[in-house]
């Protein structure tokens, strides 16, 4: 087990261990006592026991993609899982067993090529499974619904297998607790999907931003009755080589046969508003093409500030989002609306994840220079202040608990989750939720909508 101590390692080595794998270049001024570079489950057990010996907390990093860098915590032992990569595939039963630092691209590169299977991991190719699954995340349904079991090192350093029949509380919490999960997941047992034999198909429609209300109103109106194998999103961004913001509406469907994909996508083609700057219908696509597109939209070595909201089902969504979608502060930034209906209308499984609505909205503000920090962060705050009166809650993964209090779970689920946290980690060994001042401890989050002025 490699341990890099702050008080004995040279500064370059320590800094690389501290933040070298943090995706967001807006790096935090927080300093772990040590970083453990784990390569196996035994290293994780030993690291948790080391933290108990030193009477300090444990933080965990799987992919390093948290916008708020939750893994970097003062006076903690940071367990970095970047060198712990393990993957077992049971193709017959369509089950994969993967370590948290495996990314969606790494997992699917094996599944698709060797087994014609896939797992709907993060849209962004370098997001680790750990944060993606603990927070729930949406990708052709809630990804955490496909978690059949987890292997966990508890705050006491015990290695447990958790599913619906044993250690059920931890299994329940692992599907939606986010960084407040009271243990360290060492392996996810995942239910897989068949990969479409002919790949994906997509339709895209690019509109002038002046048509924002008309175009977004259209896509909202057709989403509830649209094909259930199709993802629908509206993105405001600056296309390459264009000095104007455009509204890009994308439909991506998973079908085995081209005529099935064409049938699924045709209602959009037949009802779209006229006035597109660019469009395509039922074009051949693939998971790899989706990863490439998302990777380009989320460039490395940039500074990020993200926030999000689930909007009220009956909100006037085009009116609520218009300012955010039409005033991006930087050419690399983008705003997203995601169609959750009809999935948002069904009863979820019994798991921690429990907050959703018909409309998901997120801001991904991206820039390069430190001198733009204040301006870009202020823009996000101002946009969210306007949106918040129409919000019912938010998604954990695109949030920063240091900035505002928000509902992330249904009330009963939130209470149960915080009770499970206290039961399994009464001393607060696992760092948990990074609120203002990092004071949440065993109490966790309040689960209330409250903007911090």
From TrEMBL:
<feature type="domain" description="FAD-binding PCMH-type">
    <location>
        <begin position="28"/>
        <end position="195"/>
    </location>
</feature>
<protein>
    <recommendedName>
        <fullName>FAD-binding PCMH-type domain-containing protein</fullName>
    </recommendedName>
</protein>
<dbReference type="InterPro" id="IPR016169">
    <property type="entry name" value="FAD-bd_PCMH_sub2"/>
</dbReference>
<dbReference type="InterPro" id="IPR036318">
    <property type="entry name" value="FAD-bd_PCMH-like_sf"/>
</dbReference>
<dbReference type="Pfam" id="PF01565">
    <property type="entry name" value="FAD_binding_4"/>
</dbReference>
<dbReference type="InterPro" id="IPR006094">
    <property type="entry name" value="Oxid_FAD_bind_N"/>
</dbReference>
<dbReference type="InterPro" id="IPR006093">
    <property type="entry name" value="Oxy_OxRdtase_FAD_BS"/>
</dbReference>
<comment type="similarity">
    <text>Belongs to the oxygen-dependent FAD-linked oxidoreductase family.</text>
</comment>
<dbReference type="GO" id="GO:0016491">
    <property type="term" value="F:oxidoreductase activity"/>
</dbReference>
<dbReference type="InterPro" id="IPR050416">
    <property type="entry name" value="FAD-linked_Oxidoreductase"/>
</dbReference>
<dbReference type="InterPro" id="IPR016167">
    <property type="entry name" value="FAD-bd_PCMH_sub1"/>
</dbReference>
<dbReference type="GO" id="GO:0071949">
    <property type="term" value="F:FAD binding"/>
</dbReference>
<dbReference type="InterPro" id="IPR016166">
    <property type="entry name" value="FAD-bd_PCMH"/>
</dbReference>
<keyword id="KW-0560">Oxidoreductase</keyword>
<keyword id="KW-0274">FAD</keyword>
<keyword id="KW-0285">Flavoprotein</keyword>
């Amino acid at each position: 087990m490699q341990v890099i101590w702050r008080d004995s390692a040279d500064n370059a080595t320590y800094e690389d261990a501290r933040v070298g794998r943090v995706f967001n270049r807006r790096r935090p001024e927080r300093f772990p006592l040590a970083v453990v570079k784990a390569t196996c489950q035994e290293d994780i057990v030993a690291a948790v026991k080391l933290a108990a010996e030193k009477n300090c907390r444990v933080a965990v990093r799987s992919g390093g993609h948290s916008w708020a860098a939750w893994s970097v915590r003062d006076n903690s032992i940071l367990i970095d899982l970047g060198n712990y990569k393990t993957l077992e595939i049971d193709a017959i039963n369509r089950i994969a067993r993967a370590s948290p630092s495996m990314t969606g691209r790494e997992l699917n590169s094996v599944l698709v090529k060797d087994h014609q299977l896939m797992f709907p991991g993060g849209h962004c190719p370098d997001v680790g499974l750990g944060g993606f699954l603990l927070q729930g995340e949406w990708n052709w349904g809630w990804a955490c619904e496909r978690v059949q079991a987890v292997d966990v090192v508890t705050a006491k350093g015990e290695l447990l297998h958790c599913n619906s029949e044993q250690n059920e509380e931890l299994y329940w919490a692992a599907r939606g607790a986010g960084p407040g999960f009271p243990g360290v997941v060492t392996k996810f047992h995942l239910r897989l999907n068949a990969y479409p034999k002919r790949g994906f198909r997509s339709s895209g429609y690019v509109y002038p931003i002046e048509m924002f209300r008309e175009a977004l109103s259209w896509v909202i109106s057709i989403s509830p009755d649209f094909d259930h194998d199709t993802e629908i999103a509206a993105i405001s961004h600056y296309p390459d080589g264009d000095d104007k913001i455009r509204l890009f509406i994308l439909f991506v469907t998973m079908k085995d046969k081209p005529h099935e994909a064409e049938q699924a996508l045709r209602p959009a083609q037949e009802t779209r508003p006229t006035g597109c700057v660019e469009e395509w219908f039922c074009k051949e696509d693939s998971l790899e093409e989706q990863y490439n597109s998302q990777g380009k939209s989320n460039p490395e070595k940039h500074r990020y500030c993200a926030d999000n909201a689930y909007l009220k089902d009956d909100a006037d969504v085009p009116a609520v989002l218009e300012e955010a979608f039409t005033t991006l502060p930087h050419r690399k930034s983008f705003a997203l609306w995601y169609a959750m209906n009809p999935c948002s209308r069904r009863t979820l499984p019994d798991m921690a994840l429990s907050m959703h609505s018909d409309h998901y909205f997120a801001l991904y503000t991206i820039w390069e220079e430190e001198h733009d920090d204040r301006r870009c962060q202020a823009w996000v705050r101002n946009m969210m202040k306007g949106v918040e009166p129409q919000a019912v809650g938010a998604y954990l993964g695109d949030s920063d608990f240091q900035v505002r209090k928000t509902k992330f779970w249904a009330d009963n689920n939130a209470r149960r989750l915080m009770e499970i946290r206290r039961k399994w980690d009464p001393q607060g060994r696992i760092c948990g939720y990074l609120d203002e001042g990092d004071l949440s401890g065993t109490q966790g989050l309040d689960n209330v909508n409250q903007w911090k002025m």
